[in-house]
Amino acid sequence: MLVAVLTVGFGIPLASAAAPCDEYDPGGPLRTTEITLDGADYTDSERDQMRSFVETDSIGRVEVAIVSANPRDSVLSVSALPEVSRISAFFGEELKGIALNVWVRPTNRPARVTLQLRQVCAPLPQHVPLLLICCVRR
């Protein structure tokens, strides 16, 4: 079976998309996107921690910055680390990406936080990605 994957909307020229990228090189090319975490991303009963995982197909160096927070000054700390997710390890899942954790002040809930993520060798979308998967059998 031949499987072809075409990704559109990443803002990467086709010539550079085919070039190999070393995700272990901290000086490699960075890709940027934004993600917003809100009340649906709380993970504990105290509702002071939001978590998410962004699949990027890279475990390269990550940079994170807070773009906005509502209410203001609600964020205590942020972490964004490259990780291989093995949530469904029984099925062979090994997704490369960014594990996000945002801690907020207990008095400022619910919070809405927008983060800017930059990662080495990650084909991160600038907006909403369009992923087309096509399978051909021979």
Write the layout of secondary structure elements.
Blueprint lengths: L1 E7 L5 H5 L11 E8 L11 E7 L6 E9 L4 E11 L9 E10 L7 E9 L9 E7 L2
Antiparallel strand pairs: 1-8, 2-7, 3-6, 4-7, 5-6
CATH topology: Immunoglobulin-like
Give the tally of β-strands: 8
Low-confidence stretches: 1-16, 125-138
Biggest sheet descriptor: 3 strands, antiparallel
CATH class assignment:
Mainly Beta
- CATH architecture call: Sandwich
Widest sheet, order of strands? 2-7-4
Distance between the ends: 6 Å
DSSP strand content: over 45%
Radius of gyration: 17 Å
Structure report:
With 138 residues, the chain is mainly beta. It has a single domain, classed as Immunoglobulin-like (Sandwich). Helix content is 4%, strand content 49%. The protein is built from one helix and eight strands; from the N terminus they run βαβββββββ. It has one helix at residues 14-18, and strands spanning 2-8, 30-37, 49-55, 62-70, 75-85, 95-104, 112-120, 130-136. The chain has a three-stranded antiparallel beta sheet with strand order 2-7-4, with no helix packed on it. It is flat and about 45 Å long. The termini are close together. Mean pLDDT is 77; it is low at 1-16 and 125-138.
Short description:
By secondary structure, this protein is mostly beta strands. 4% of the residues lie in helices and 49% in strands.
Key features of this structure:
mainly beta, disordered C terminus, three-stranded antiparallel β-sheet
